[in-house]
Amino acid sequence: MARGLPPLNALPAFEAAARHLNFSRAADELNVTHGAISRAVKHLEDRLGVQLFERATRSVRLTPVGEPYARAVREALDQLSVATQTATSRLSGSTLNVSTSDGFAGKWLVPRLYRFHRAHGDIDVRVSTTGRLTNFRGDGIDVAIRYGAGHYHGLTSEFLTGEEVFPVCSPKLLEGPHPLKKPEDLKHHTLIRDGYRIDWAAWLASAGVEGIDPNSGLSFDSATFAVESAVQGEGVVLGRTMLVSADLATGRLVRPFDHALKAVSSFYLVYPPEAIRQRKVKAFRDWLFSEIEPG
To answer: What does DSSP say about strands 94-100 and 60-62: parallel, antiparallel, or unpaired?
Structure first.
């Protein structure tokens, strides 16, 4: 039986334009011109005999017909993408592309990945470290580990763990002429910063400590470098639970004080809803939760 299919090469352009409600952004995503998107959508409308977008001078919006059609096209493209990945992975091996921050990758994920490989030797993991939002289809990312409020439109977002923020340092700073015994002793030591939203000003104020410049000391763009600087005894850094747990467990870092602040953000595992049907994604998801639960 013949299928009444639309022009298939126009569907990605229509789906991107419908998702962004902007032809220029759709063009940027697909690496084509604005005119190419416009022509593809017009061709689709002509073939269907219906208007999918209402066009204004500076904006577009979906018509009552275009809105449900866009949802159906998106689901169809997602299913086709999953089927294609499944088919090709059987031939060329299975590669899982993970996006996360450099701090989480360097201080938590990478040191544990050998256990995932031990259990799933046929799945190769590629880790991309970036703080920007992931375009899963455009960037070729399968799953992302993100730090935030957990609201990611159109994506599955699973809570991994919350965090506390507290000072950590090398054990050597507990000794010497100015040992760290109480928060006020921080005046004798270098403060290390990594640009995190809960900074030394907030922690010192919550601990009731005055007379210490929270902007003094060492500053890094990378949480990994900031933590490593503390490990080397260069000063005291505000550690986050997930980023310092391994170093605390091995004794490379210690907590000189009990006082901690609860972080306003948490870690989430984020992926397109249909991705969980892939064996590699399900395996990584289950392994990730098994690693976090014991801690």
So the answer is: unpaired
Tokens of 133: 């939002």
Which residues, 6 or more positions from 70, have their beta carbon under 8 angstroms from its beta carbon?
14, 15, 18, 19, 52, 62
Strands 123-129 and 94-100: parallel
Helix (H) or strand (E) holding 95: strand 94-100
> How many CB atoms neighbour CB 32 within 10 A?
16
Least confident range from 4-8, 136-140, 270-274: namely: 136-140
Q: State phi, psi for 180 to the nearest 5 degrees.
A: -80, 105
Which ranges of 101-199 does DSSP label H, i.e. alpha helix?
Answer: 102-104, 113-119, 136-139
Q: Is 57 exposed, middle or buried, given 0-12, 13-18 or 19+ CB atoms closer than 10 A?
A: exposed
Domain 93-158+266-292: which CATH number of 3.30.2130.10, 3.40.720.10, 3.30.1490.190, 3.40.190.10: 3.40.190.10
Beta-carbon contacts of 289 under 8 Å, excluding residues fewer than 6 positions away, are 160
35-49, 53-67, 80-94, 248-262: the lowest-pLDDT one: 80-94
**Residue 239 main-chain phi, psi, to 5 deg:** -85, 150
Residue boundaries of the structural domains of the chain: 8-83, 93-158+266-292, 164-262
**What does the DSSP 8-state code read for residue 8?**
G
* CA 181 to mean position of chain CA atoms: 36
